Amino acid sequence: MRADLATILKDAPAAIRRAMIEDAPNLAAGAAHVMGRFWTAVRDSRGNSLMPAAEAYRAAAASETTFRCLLRTLAAYAPHVSTAPARIVSDEWYARRRKPAARVVSKAETAVGENWPTAWRRMKPKLVASPIRPSTRKRYLASIDRCAALVAEGLASHKHGFITACELSEAFLFHPDKDRRVKPVTAANYIEGLIALGAKSGVAEESLSAMQVITRDLRDQAALDEKNKYERISELMERGGYAHVADKIRELRERAHDLPAHSAARRRCMQQAVVCAVIVNKPPRKGDLVSWRFGNQIVRDVDGTWRAEWEQEKTGASTETGAIWPEICEILDEWILDGRPDRLVHVRYQGLVGRNWLTLDDREPYRNLPTELTRAAIGVPSHDLRTLAADYMRRHNPAHAADVIAAHLGHGTRQAGEAYRAECEGAAAQAIWEKARMTIAAQSERSAGKRKKRTRAVKRSL
Fold this sequence. Notes:
With 462 residues, the protein is mainly α. The protein folds into 3 domains: 2-95; 118-380, no CATH class; 397-461. The protein contains 21 helices and 3 strands. The chain has helices at 2-8, 14-22, 31-44, 54-60, 64-77, 86-96, 118-129, 134-152, 162-173, 184-200, 205-225, 229-238, 242-257, 264-281, 286-289, 326-337, 345-352, 369-378, 382-396, 398-409, 418-461, and strands at 298-300, 306-311, 318-323. A 3-stranded antiparallel sheet has the order 1-2-3. α9 (162-173) packs across α14 (264-281). The N and C termini lie far apart (119 Å). Residues 101-109 and 411-434 have low confidence and may be disordered. This is Tyr recombinase domain-containing protein. Residues 443-462 are annotated as: Disordered.
């Protein structure tokens, strides 16, 4: 067996070949052969072994099932290899799928668990035998069925853990078929069914705890969705305002780093992070945000500084960010690299000039995408961050905030920002009156002191 694998994997890098030979009993069916073809294709094309080109993936896999097997095997035995170019091939395979015709529901239902991954089917008896209410058991089984369907599509891994929960969350909320997308609370319920399966079957507590991080995020998002604008802003301020947003951006970047470069979940995490970051720097309206293109509305200078300048759809007036903050420039670089090595950032940017900044291709996304991304990241629509920015400025300097807010948010007329202006004037009046109150109080204390002195003087004279 070891000799056969050595022959099949003759063109694979030595470390990868050795790791697969040592783990031979656990290799998935077909994994060795597809890896052998893949590395032979890389060698024949004299490609980069740290980031093989898309052609190597196409040459190695003649079916989507084999392609998905290749990606899983690379993630397991070659995690240092950037699979970013595989994203193109993954999109190609998905586009080839036949659209499901209207299905007539059959009276003979498929047995529960029949389409689950092998590892889950082995765990099922322990869940079925566990002392839980029949209704809870039925709900868990149905939830796991929904998760299994996404695993079968290649949209998520089957192994319990943080990555699988991220991929399932991404697939449930942003499935390519819009009719199959679900609300955050529903996605949390489905993933919790899978967590229950693992808990009853002895899966490591660390893996289950990592999955619960994702379900908590989904539930927090669902809770904020139910609030009105001012309740959302108030709660966001209670959580720390922009400090909370910054923390979420950091968490999303860390989450993305743990996911494979080709993963749709990884790209979505970075997409959420970069949109939140750009809005924090200066909050454009969502209709403007989706229209930006590299080299036009958003530009990267040779020194790595990013700038954005655009004509506002609502007002027709031009506005700009100036030099974007260095921390956000770093996130923009990370976004366009999309899992590629840092040294390729200049080449990558030049290759993206003229393309949409949110899709990284020629397509312009639907206008509500920024709101979907910020809701998923921090629980509020993108427009709430415009309100949050105004609130910060009003609190900092109410006397001058109205004009600063108008410039920062791109209001074309005085009337456009009248509500913000009224709040600023009210806050400024309140601040002035607070100073007046303090002055009156001080004067009152002095007057009281003088009266006491006069009273004591009169008493002594008597």
